[in-house]
Amino acid sequence: MAEGLLRNIYGSRYEAYSAGIMATNVNPYAVRVMKEIGIDISSQYSKTHKEFQDVIFDMAVTVCDRAKVSCPICSTNLEVPVEYPKAREVIHKSFEDPAATLGSEDEKLKVFRQIRDEI
């Protein structure tokens, strides 16, 4: 959702790439709630560090506590082995993981909307 929002709002000023520790599918609830505000993220896909080898990003933003701890892309040490991308600056913002929400479809959508709006 963060990648889609950044591309939509600031796409002429920034390039956004979303990656995770492991490649996964984009959550269908995320696709639905983003579509509600006119942003189509259905063609986005989960990427891993392997797709960004040898890249030095200006900034990396982690959006959950688990990523902050385990994200190799977020190392500000430019001496990290070449197989891992690097970032000159790292920002962390902790959001609840909406995919971890249990409950009815309406309850899940409510949490996805809340996180979308917080981002």
Task: Please explain how this structure is put together.
- The protein is of the alpha+beta class.
- The protein has one domain: Rossmann fold.
- It is built from four helices and two strands, in the order ααβαβα.
- It has helices at about 1-10, 30-35, 65-70, 105-119, and strands at about 55-60, 85-90.
- A two-stranded parallel ribbon has the order 1-2.
- Strand 1, helix 3 and strand 2 form a beta-alpha-beta unit.
- Helix 2 (about 30-35) packs across helix 4.
- The longest helix is centred in the C-terminal third of the chain and has 14 residues, at about 105-119.
- The radius of gyration is 15 Å and the shape is globular.
- The relative contact order is 0.19.
Please give a quick description of this structure.
The protein is of the alpha+beta class. The protein is built from 4 helices and 2 strands; from the N terminus they run ααβαβα. It has a single domain, classed as 3-Layer(aba) Sandwich (Rossmann fold), CATH 3.40.50.2300.
